[in-house]
Amino acid sequence: EHNTIRYLNYWLKSIKYHSPGANVMLVGTHLDSVKESVSDVKRDLDHVDSVLAMIVYPKMKTQKEAVKMKNAFDAANKFAKKLETEASNAAGSRKLNVLKDGDKRLFFAVDLSSVNKTVAAVRKKLDEAAPQQDFFAKSVPIKWMQFLDQMLANGENWLEATKVKECAEETLKGSENIEKEMTSALEMLHELGYIIYITNLKSFRGFVITNPQWLVDATTKIMYSEDVQKFDKEEALKSNLADDVKAGLDHGLISRDFMNFLWGETDTPFFIKYLEQNLLISRWGYGEQGKQSYVAPSLVPRRQASEGAAPDEGSDLKAFFTFGNYLTLGVFERLVCQVVQSTIRGFPDSRPPKLYAGFSQHWFGDDFEFCLRRENNFILCTVISSKKAPIKCISRLLKMFQKLGDLLGQGFSVSTSLIVKKEYVDYADVKTNKLSPWY
């Protein structure tokens, strides 16, 4: 149950971050597999509902306390109303709208063994919720759809900004302001998932991905796990890429030959630049072979217990980076890419970092040695050794978070607390008062 709660917590908070205001329907299948009395089933459903309430409304008490509450759902509703009131005056508030079943639960328990009232309840709720969506029955100018058809006409997976403008000029003739109407059309088509309209990457600003699934499929090829293999490992070995595959799966290092295998020689230059600017990969830069390689933190394996105690266990110089109530997908890996890039540029003679899934060890020249560790809802930085005031290491990392904020957009924020005499102290207070041991 603990792993299930972590899984739900992670994905619901990711949805809350990336799609604020979206309606979410949670469906629990295999109700027909529960061989218990009606009262026991109701008790189990209420238990699941109380756990979900703690995730959906995180300002409530902890999950452990909440599960024990007899009226956890009622309490959750009270908190929900309070949160909505607080959010109404807050800029950029991000709500998670979970659709409720007929018993006011946060999920729909469904028996899929036959067509029955549980399945009908899901269909009914979908029919009720669909018309409430902003895009439902929205009038869309015919020329906007002609604009989309024009972008799709040549079968390319992506278009440069100049080509997008040419398509707009061809199909949006007669507009008072073609540039403004083009932007409005692209934003709507992006929101509906027809295209990906890139606005946050300098080198790709104004580009349009006309085949979003192509980009998703290509990107997930460097997000390898033993359970989900996104590329044909056996085919790679037949292509004389055994060493490349091993470097990728053991150390997250991707050679140009391996990239050509994954994406094809034509698309590889695009993906290198796109993924590097998205901080999903970084040039490695260590050793002769490393200068031709990139590192993908999403590929690296977990640190094994056989490697001994982690190097961050013996230091009290710890900083906690928190992100509201959740640490969304990819923030840690992007931070690692940022650190690697910054090290190569600013400290080219540094020791190579040691990278693992959710854990990394870095050196900024001889100035600092530090570790980063991903936890459920925060990132922990431990300064192991330093020749300068340790606070400067944290300040450098915070500048990197600023770039992440520019990349991830509205809703991304980070708060920093440092350990001082076994207590959490805000970063700003540590700086203002120059507190030891950070100074």
Describe the structure.
The protein is of the alpha+beta class and 439 residues long. The strands form 5 sheets. Strands 12-13-14-15-11-16-17 form a 7-stranded antiparallel sheet. A 3-stranded antiparallel sheet has the order 5-7-6. The chain is globular, with a radius of gyration of 25 Å. Strand 13 and strand 14 form a beta hairpin. 45% of the residues lie in helices and 14% in strands. The chain starts with a helix and ends in a 6-residue tail after the last helix. It has helices spanning 2-18, 38-56, 63-68, 72-88, 117-129, 142-152, 161-171, 178-191, 212-220, 233-238, 242-251, 256-263, 268-277, 287-290, 331-346, 391-408, 427-433; strands spanning 23-24, 27-28, 97-98, 108-109, 158-159, 196-197, 208-209, 253-255, 282-283, 293-295, 318-322, 354-356, 359-364, 368-374, 378-386, 415-420, 423-426. Helix 2 (38-56) runs parallel beside helix 4, helix 6 packs across helix 7 and helix 15 (331-346) packs across helix 16.
Number of strands: 17
Low-confidence stretches: 60-77, 79-93
Q: Percentage of helical residues?
A: 40-55%
Shape: globular
So how many helices?
17
Span between N and C termini? 44 Å
- CA radius of gyration is 25 Å
Task: State the major sheet.
Answer: 7 strands, antiparallel
* Class computed from helices, strands and strand pairing: alpha+beta
Strand content: 5-15%
Can you list the strand order of the major beta sheet?
12-13-14-15-11-16-17
* Rounded average pLDDT: 84
